[in-house]
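cron nightly-structures :: item 1 of 1
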Amino acid sequence: MSRRRILTLTTLAAASVAVLTACSGGAATTSSSAPEDEYGLVTAGTLTVATEGTYRPFTYHEDGSGDLVGYDVEIIEAVADKLGLEVVFEETQWDAIFAGLDAGRFDLIANQVSINPEREEKYIFSEPYTVSPGVIVVKEEDDSISSFDDLDGKTTAQSLTSNWYTLAQESGATVEAVEGWAQAVALLEQGRVDATINDNLTYLDYETTNGPTGLKIAAETDDPALNAFALTKDKEALVEAIDEALAELREEGVIAEISEKYFGVDVSE
């Protein structure tokens, strides 16, 4: 597990080194290759990470008030450990998270940020550490749906503000409006709708937490979402180091192990 430290200790330690150097009469030396110089970190030696802390199973507090845990939390902790950096998490609401990154409050965002052309114009991304298609979820005994075309004339439960609502409509489904996954899956289990479309990770988390649920995946989209760490474009050296760390963690099986812990399968590739 990554080490976390209190920032005031860093300040005190730095002050102590400065005093000792002055007393010895020698000149302080600073390596230009030190990670904090090379990466342009908000705080030297520390990776400052923005995350919501309310987005299960990616970033959340166990039992609502325990330690910050989750898939994204463990992945970035493993990366920071590879880089020899401490981690400080800054819990931030999603609506303000990119503004905080732009303002230089964080080094990166670890919060299942999907890579898309609009974001790529402004930010740089690490290699994806989560690959997740959209899926149609139905009851296990239902064999009438095996593709998105089969939703024509069926009823699905969807949040009206989600991309899945649009996909359901385009597929010809009648949409029952719900607030989110919890309501959608409840209607499906009660037999009040034929299906629901959602992110594969949401389904896998539900199955891992509550299974067996009597549900199954009937079909999935051809273009999965690719989720990665988001950084400002001046952090090229840092993102390159993160990518190297991710590659090592993949080779060592660490990412697959974390993935299987939360989802029961490897969702990293």
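cron nightly-structures :: done
The chain has a mean pLDDT of 88.
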